[in-house]
Every structure is written in structure tokens, then in C-alpha cells.
Specification:
This protein is α/β, with parallel strands linked by helices and 323 residues long. The protein has a domain of 224 residues: TIM Barrel, CATH 3.20.20. The protein contains 7 helices and 11 strands. A 9-stranded mixed β-sheet has the order 4-5-6-7-8-9-1-3-10, with helices on one face. Strand 4, helix 1 and strand 5 form a beta-alpha-beta unit. The longest helix has 14 residues. It binds iron/sulfur cluster (SF4). This is Cyclic pyranopterin phosphate synthase protein.
């Protein structure tokens, strides 16, 4: 399955508690998407369908930095009633229920993607201002008890966090949570994924923008292409279905690889999600570098006549920022 996402750059990250964003922060962020491909149409596609798609507490792709607020809590989450209903808190003024929460676990990353981070990295928030594991679990518990049924862990790079397995384990135990997902660059995933799966992670998105090792090094300013490919295979072997591969398409950089990515889906249970390049402060965005999802689709259709399109559907991804 190939999924094109319009106007949404999911890589860079999204925070449960965003405090510092440099771009515009609309209360809602919409993204169009449509799907096509060889096979492996996932049931999880529904996570992007309809009005109750993605609700991130603060999933604003225009963020180029964020800050987590400390709360005072002495212990772990207290049990909250969960009757599977959705609290008014999660229903927006259009009546849409937002049951998908994204939590950014760290702003650190072991890559330096050109469109995301400066080569020297970003100024890091002091640990004292970051949420502790207990605070994360407590907040997540409140959201799940209020109706959230899917949580995605992001960063930065979430696998960098040393307590990532414990966080997964505790989150997956929250009553009412159906999906615990992670978006990762895959650099250290081969080593960590078995334990993460044991800890309750049941959905994975791996970011990969190129199938060419030298280009990977150029785009991310780091080595590790092979490790990412191995992580994708490891996720397939461990039974993640589908394994989602997120690919940000930039004209003149990797746009000629679109059909190579499509080819990945022929024999493996992989969903490729093509993401439009979008502007952040400092990422040298230009409309000339943008490849629209319509153009991507045209290329797939014209080059790969053997691809049986499975219909197209514009879906909306609705993100709500609560700060
Ligand atoms: S993997 Fe790349 S896009 Fe994702 S947070 Fe790290 S630098 Fe940014």
C-alpha cells in the first residue's frame, strides 16, 4: 500500500506538550491522503479515515522545537473510569472525536535530516522541564480514560530514550488502549524491536527517504542506511502488519525513487507513505522542491502500469493542538 500525504510532514515531531513552535499553529491541521499499491492493504488504514483520525495533542508539523511542561504528580496514574465513551474534551466544535494521541518522548535524534534539523542539532530542553516516565503514563492514562484508543510515540527519535521499553510496557497496559504505535528512524530498531514488541508496541512507522546509501548519508548527515533497511526487515519478521515506511519526497533529491519505493511493497507487507516536503524555519524549503501527491501518483501510474490501483480516497487527518 502506498499512501500519499498532502501537506503533512510527520517526521518531525510532535509533542504531547508543545511549548515552542516557530510556525503557524492552527487549531486544526488537515491533510489529504490517498492510497494505492500492490497489496498489503492494511486494516490500520482506518487510522487515517474520517473525522476521528489523528488527534495529537499537539501534533503541529510546523514545530521546529518544543518544550515539555513539568507537572506535579507524586505517583503513577490513579485508576480512572473507562466506559469506552469519548469525553467532551476530545470532541471538537465540528463534533469530531479525536481518539489518537501523539506523544513526543524526546527532542534528541541520532540523525540530522537536512529538512528537519540543523547539523549541530537543536537546543535541548533541560531534563527538569521534560516529562518523567510517570508523568507521561499519568497523562496518557487520563487521555485513554477519556476515550483515546491509539497512542503514537514520536520524538526526535523515541528509541533514544533509555526507558522506552518501560514506557511501552506501561502504556500498553492502559485499559482501553488498542494501538500503541511508534514512528522511528529505525537506526537502532533491530536491537530494540523484539523487546518493544514484548512490551506491547503493535504498530510501527519507519522513516526512510532513499534507497541509495550515499544519498541517505547526504540527507541525514549520518551513516546507517543499512541499519534502517535491516530494521524494516526485522519489523516484517516480527509480524508487524503492515510495516509503514514514511518517505518525504523532495524534488531533485529523491523524487526519482518513488517507483523504487513502490516496488518494495510488491513482496513485503510494507506500506509506503509518501509525504510532501513542507516548510520549517531553516529547512530551505522552496515550492520548487515540492512534489505534490497528485504528481507522485501520476508518476506511479505512468511508470508502473502493472500496479493495480486499489482506488483512491481522499482522507483527512485532523490534528488538534491542545496546549
Ligand atoms: S530522523 Fe530525521 S526527521 Fe526524524 S527527528 Fe531525526 S532528524 Fe528529524
Amino acid at each position: 500500500m502506498i499512501l500519499f500525504r498532502s501537506a503533512l510532514m510527520m517526521r518531525r515531531c510532535v509533542s504531547l506538550l508543545v511549548g515552542r513552535c516557530f510556525g503557524p499553529q492552527p487549531p486544526f491541521f488537515l491533510a489529504g491522503a490517498f492510497t494505492s499499491g500492490f497489496g498489503h492493504i492494511p486494516s490500520s488504514q482506518s487510522s487515517y479515515k474520517g473525522s476521528n483520525g489523528c488527534v495529537s495533542v499537539s501534533d503541529d508539523p510546523s514545530c521546529s522545537g518544543y518544550m515539555a511542561y513539568t507537572t506535579s504528580c507524586a505517583g503513577l496514574a490513579e485508576p480512572l473510569p473507562n466506559d469506552n465513551s469519548v469525553s467532551d474534551m476530545l470532541v471538537d466544535s465540528f463534533g469530531r472525536m479525536h481518539t489518537y494521541l501523539r506523544i513526543s518522548l524526546t527532542e534528541r535524534c541520532n540523525l540530522r535530516c537536512q529538512y528537519c534539523m540543523p547539523a549541530e542539532g537543536v537546543e535541548l530542553t533541560p531534563n527538569s522541564k521534560l516529562l518523567s516516565r510517570n508523568e507521561i503514563i499519568r497523562l496518557a492514562n487520563i487521555f485513554v480514560a477519556s476515550g483515546v484508543n491509539k497512542i503514537r510515540l514520536t520524538g526526535g527519535e523515541p528509541t533514544i530514550r533509555s526507558d522506552i521499553e518501560d514506557i511501552c510496557s506501561q502504556l500498553s497496559g492502559l485499559k482501553g488502549l488498542k494501538t500503541l504505535a511508534m514512528t522511528t528512524n529505525g537506526l537502532v530498531l533491530t536491537r530494540k524491536l523484539p523487546k518493544l514488541k514484548e512490551s506491547g508496541l503493535n504498530s510501527i512507522n519507519i522513516s526512510l527517504d532513499t534507497l541509495v546509501p550515499a544519498k541517505f548519508e547526504f540527507m541525514t548527515r549520518r551513516k546507517g542506511h543499512n541499519k534502517v533497511l535491516e530494521s524494516i526487515d526485522a519489523a516484517v519478521d516480527l509480524g508487524f502488519r503492515p510495516v509503514k515506511v514514511n518517505c518525504v519526497v523532495i524534488r531533485g533529491v529523491n523524487d526519482e525513487e518513488i517507483c523504487d519505493f513502490v516496488e518494495l511493497t510488491r513482496d513485503k507487507p510494507i506500506n509506503v507513505r509518501f509525504i510532501e516536503f513542507m516548510p520549517f524555519d531553516g529547512n530551505v524549503w522552496s515550492s520548487k522542491k515540492l512534489v505534490s501527491y497528485a504528481e507522485m501518483m501520476d508518476r506511479v501510474v505512468s511508470v508502473s502500469s502493472s500496479i493495480a490501483l486499489r482506488g483512491s480516497k481522499i482522507t483527512q487527518l485532523t490534528l488538534q493542538k491542545i496546549s
